[in-house]
Design goal:
It contains 16 helices and 21 strands. The chain is α/β, with parallel strands linked by helices. The mean pLDDT is 93.
C-alpha cells in the first residue's frame, strides 16, 4: 500500500464496530421497552451475560472506560448490592429460565471485589440462569491489585479465562500513563492463575501511547511472550481528552503520529506472528489451538462489545452501570453514572436509560460490517440473500467504496468485496463505507489505525 494512501485514511476517527448501529446513535429506548423485549425472550433460549464493575484504585490516564476511583470498599459493596438486585429484576422479567455459555466481568477492575463477594455474585447468576458446564466465564484483571485469596475465589467461582492488562512494560511509558506495573507483578498473577486451574490467560497491549516507539513495543512483546499467554488483544490508544478529562494529563506532543502508530501496530503484529500466534481480525492474536483461532479458520468468528469472540448468541444481557445489552429487537444501555444506576435499581426499576431498536436495514448492515471486521471480506450476495436485499443496491450506496477501490484499499469481484493483506490495517475504513449513520451525530472515535 502506498504511503500516501495510508496517510490519507489512517487518521480518520472511526468506530471500532463492536456494535452496529454504534453507541453514539442510541436514543429513545426506555425501561418499559426493555421490559417488553425481555418478556419476548423464549424460555430455554441461550443468552450471554456481561457484568460491569466500574471501580479502580487509581486512574490510568489512557483509560477510555466508564470507571471511578475509590480507596474504600464500601462504595463497591453498595454497588454489588444493586447488581444483585438488577440480576433478580431482569431475570423476573423473562418468562422462563435462560442458559448462558458466555459470562464476562469487565470494568474498571472487577477483582477489587472481596473474594466472598465474587463467589456470591456467581451464585446469584447460577440461581437465575443455567451456566453451561462447558461455557466460558471470563474476567478482566489488573495484576497490581490481584491477591492470592482472590485467585482462589475466581477458581472456586468457575472462572475459565482471565484477561490481564499489561499495555506496556516500558517504564518511561508507564510513568507517562500513570500505570507503573512491573514484569514481576504480571508474571506472579499469570503463574498464580494457572496454578489455581485457570489455564486460559489473555494479555492486553496498547500502542500509540506517549513516548512509545517501535523498539519499546517490541521489547514489551518479547517480555509478554515469555509468559506464554493464550491470546493477545492489541489496541490503539484513543486520545479523546474532551470526552475523558483525565487524558488531559497526557502530554500530547509525546504521542506518536499516524505513520508511527501504524509502524508500531505492524511491528507488534509481526512479532506475535513470528512467535506462533495467529492474527485474528483487526486486533487479536491467538495460539493455533485456541478457540478464537479455530473460529477464524472455520468462518465462525464474531464481534461484540468484548471484541472478537466465539460467541454467536444474539442475546447479551448487560448488568451494571453503563453496561450495554443486545436483544433480538435491538440494543439497551444502562444509566452511566453509578448514582443514577443505583437509584433506578433501588426504586425497583430496570436501569436502562437509552438504546436502539434495530430496523431490518440495520441488521443487514450489521451483518456486512461484522463479516468485514472478522474476515477482511464480505460476500454481499450471501449476506443479502439472508435478508432479502439487493447486493448491487447495497454496494452502490456504500459511501466512498468506489474511492477505496480506486485507491487500492479494497477490491470487488462481483458481489465479494475484500481487503488485500497489506491494506488490512484499514479494515475499519472499509466497514465504515456501509455505516449509514456515520457523521449524523456527534461522536468521539479513535483513529482508523
Amino acid at each position: 500500500m502506498r504511503p500516501e494512501i495510508l496517510t490519507r485514511y489512517a487518521d480518520r476517527p472511526l468506530p471500532r464496530y463492536t456494535s452496529y448501529p454504534t453507541a453514539p446513535h442510541f436514543g429513545a429506548v426506555n425501561a418499559d421497552v426493555y421490559r417488553g423485549w425481555l418478556a419476548a425472550l423464549p424460555a430455554g433460549a441461550e443468552t450471554s451475560l456481561y457484568l460491569h464493575v466500574p471501580f479502580c484504585r487509581s486512574m490510568c490516564w489512557y483509560c477510555g472506560c466508564h470507571t471511578t476511583i475509590t480507596a474504600r470498599d464500601e462504595p463497591i459493596a453498595r454497588y454489588l448490592a444493586a447488581l444483585h438486585e438488577e440480576i433478580r429484576v431482569v431475570a423476573d422479567a423473562i418468562p422462563g429460565r435462560l442458559s448462558a455459555r458466555h459470562v464476562h466481568f469487565g470494568g474498571g477492575t472487577p477483582t477489587l471485589m472481596k473474594p466472598d463477594q465474587f463467589v456470591a455474585l456467581m451464585d446469584a447468576l447460577r440461581e437465575r440462569f443455567t451456566i453451561e458446564p462447558d461455557g466460558e466465564v471470563a474476567i478482566e484483571i489488573d495484576p497490581r491489585t490481584l491477591e492470592p485469596e482472590m485467585i482462589d475465589a475466581l477458581a472456586a467461582g468457575g472462572v475459565t479465562r482471565a484477561s490481564l492488562g499489561v499495555q506496556s512494560f516500558d517504564p518511561v511509558v508507564q510513568q507517562a500513563i500513570n500505570r507503573v506495573q512491573s514484569y514481576e507483578q504480571t508474571a506472579a498473577a499469570t503463574e498464580g492463575l494457572r496454578a489455581a486451574g485457570i489455564r486460559a490467560v489473555n494479555f492486553d497491549l496498547i500502542y500509540g501511547l506517549p513516548h512509545q516507539n517501535v523498539a519499546s513495543c517490541l521489547e514489551t512483546v518479547e517480555q509478554a511472550v515469555a509468559l506464554a499467554p493464550d491470546r493477545f488483544a492489541v489496541f490503539g490508544y484513543a486520545h479523546v481528552p474532551d470526552f475523558k478529562r483525565h487524558q488531559r494529563k497526557i502530554e500530547e506532543t509525546a504521542l506518536p503520529g499516524g505513520a508511527e502508530r501504524h509502524a508500531q501496530a505492524e511491528a507488534i503484529a509481526d512479532a506475535l506472528v513470528d512467535a506462533g500466534y495467529i492474527r485474528v481480525g483487526l486486533d487479536h492474536f491467538a495460539r493455533p489451538g485456541d478457540s478464537l483461532a479455530q473460529a477464524l479458520s472455520h468462518g465462525a468468528l464474531h464481534r461484540n462489545f468484548q471484541g472478537y469472540t466465539t460467541d454467536a448468541c444474539d442475546t447479551l444481557l448487560g448488568f451494571g452501570a453503563s453496561s450495554i445489552g443486545r436483544l433480538p429487537q435491538g440494543y439497551v444501555q444502562n444509566a452511566v453514572l453509578i448514582g443514577d444506576y443505583q437509584r433506578r435499581i433501588a426504586e425497583g426499576a430496570l436501569a436502562v436509560s437509552k438504546g436502539r431498536a434495530c430496523a431490518p436495514e440495520d441488521r443487514l448492515r450489521a451483518a456486512v460490517i461484522e463479516r468485514i471486521m472478522c474476515d477482511y471480506r464480505v460476500d454481499l450476495g450471501e449476506v443479502c440473500a439472508r435478508f432479502g436485499a439487493d447486493p448491487d443496491r447495497l454496494a452502490d450506496n456504500a459511501s466512498g467504496l468506489d474511492q477505496l477501490i480506486a485507491d487500492g484499499v479494497a477490491r470487488r469481484e462481483r458481489n465479494v468485496i475484500m481487503l488485500d493483506e497489506e491494506a488490512r490495517p484499514l479494515v475499519r475504513v472499509l466497514a465504515a463505507a456501509f455505516d449509514e449513520y456515520l457523521g449524523r451525530a456527534p461522536a468521539r472515535h479513535s483513529r482508523a489505525v
